[in-house]
């Protein structure tokens, strides 16, 4: 169980995390979601005692993490796959961590095999790809068989097979009764993994609820249309009262019109349509709507 | 890889004791693995020993420039513990100490380390212990080897051709102390500066340039400043005529070396304890 | 097409401008130069303020010793070398070098542009530091010694060669940075080559005493004549050779940097 109480972190005049209060419960995968710069990593670092909060508290199983004598048996964490010395072999890196917590040597081989790095164990980490470093980070998190696991953007750089494997891993860990907190800036990633969502934006808590409730928030279902002449279709759909966004490769996203209305408009204007589909990204939509007002690094309008 | 494969290794089979506090021996072993798994450690220590031996040999072989004092036989300590010849070794081990800290910060490894061991001060103490013991062993090899070389190659009459005479023992002891002091100083500078190039610069400035810039033969202030440097404290104990022999006692020299070591550990611990990583 | 077709080869001026932006956008540039200037000023004041000249003995003193103290300028040289090291090794350690060489595949021109920018900065830094040293030492010596003025040809010569010394140091630093690439390793190598190596060589331990004379600081000493008495404790080259060395060091350093960077994978 992870608890944050009015957690606040200021860097000079910038408030990175603002009075964040939430609880992460065992037995489920909790998604920690927010756009870039929302304060996710800072929050995780405060939970792990790496950064000192300006005010408020963060505890793991009721205790501040800094008070622990050994960490790996309590918490496994993957914060940044780059948090490894590039000059060391994977084997040496994991062995040193294991030794520091008094864990048996077989454990090193076991977790490296688990993440599929047995072959590469003797190579220097500097030669690893991003995906391999993510796997190495996951291996370190699993090392102490901990009841609490924290992963910051763990999917970055993994290949499709690796992503499936990682999702299965998170679900499995949760089903074993562990507390699993996975952060991401992409809603689509959470869709397949999380049971519960904590959403932050601009350092503040925006939502803390089960995934199903969160999905129901999407106010506007949208439709994706692919056609031979998307420019003309866009014009006529807008004229018919739709809100249209160009996606490129001839696709449009349309809101405020149903699939049948779109079909009618296209037919009466003699525009060939290849595909009409309701967008399944209701979660994505809800997420975008919720965080829109808090996005720090908003892309410039072009 | 399928989910079915996952279950087995996740559980720690042989229930390892759930330690609420890491044993110091384990922390030491972990830092030991970290130190030796970097190529630069072996290279630097090897180079330090090789250079010290080479310089001791060439110092004694070129015996002409060894000061023989007012009269009497040559002091082999002059060859084996020539001041400038040891500066590269001092800087080398200080760089190892510095990189032990800077490397963790620069790569972000420090976060991984501190999640494993949240008690930061113990990490610092373990790191310091590994650095000190490894560099002390290096110094022992360099000092004894250098002396033996000096015994073997110095032409003419020697003042005490034995490792066990008091002057030799003092010099060996001082060397075994000074390299760890330098390594710990490097560690403290690394903790303060965190930036690789800045730390390298500071290490060279403090341990290498300092003794060249401030010599204990100028005015009172310069002498006092010089005497608190590890280089001159070591020079006093090896009595190799670095001009400071008369300006402090052997006891003061030992105190100065101990103070540097202790202050370095304290600075590193306090700095790391207070910092967001 | 209304947009002009870009040249397929960047103008050298553009490369220099790009390197200029890189150097100027780093805090370390300003910190390093400010630190060097401060160090030189404090050292010049310290040297000057502690001199007691007996009445009528002024002729026996060489006033150049105070603003152009050898330890101070050795330090300035190493500081400049650190600047050069960072300009090259910083790109390697951050991986920026790949982006740079992707943008401009002709590596030699990049190195040359970098050399131009580094030299310009160090020349400016050298002039400032040299003049500041001169005037601060002059002020500290007032009432004791006079004659520290650029009107005298020997003082002018010493001031000029001191202003040039950081350029030598920085270009040597670039070569060391290109060879070693790791910032900490390269910085300590720069110290070793420029400062500890001459000391070791001069002590005759390695038996290559003559080699001291080809080091930048020895050339500088030969030209600036800012030494306590004669004979000089360390061997220095003849003045003509010293001027040659002042020209040879930058050129050879740039050539070495260029060869190393061109030959190696990044």
TrEMBL record, chain A:
It comes from the Bacteria. InterPro entries: AAA+_ATPase, ABC_transporter-like_ATP-bd, ABC_transporter-like_CS, P-loop_NTPase. Pfam families: ABC_tran (PF00005). Residues 2-227 form the ABC transporter domain. Keywords: ATP-binding, Nucleotide-binding, Transport. The keyword Transport applies. GO terms for molecular function: ATP binding. Belongs to the ABC transporter superfamily. PANTHER family: ABC TRANSPORTER, ATP-BINDING PROTEIN (PTHR43335:SF4). This is ABC transporter ATP-binding protein. It comes from Streptacidiphilus cavernicola. The lineage of its organism: Bacteria, Bacillati, Actinomycetota, Actinomycetes, Kitasatosporales.
From TrEMBL, chain C:
The chain crosses the membrane at residues 29-46, 71-90, 111-135, 155-179, 191-211, 241-261. Keywords: Membrane, Transmembrane, Transmembrane helix. This is ABC transporter permease. It comes from Streptacidiphilus cavernicola.
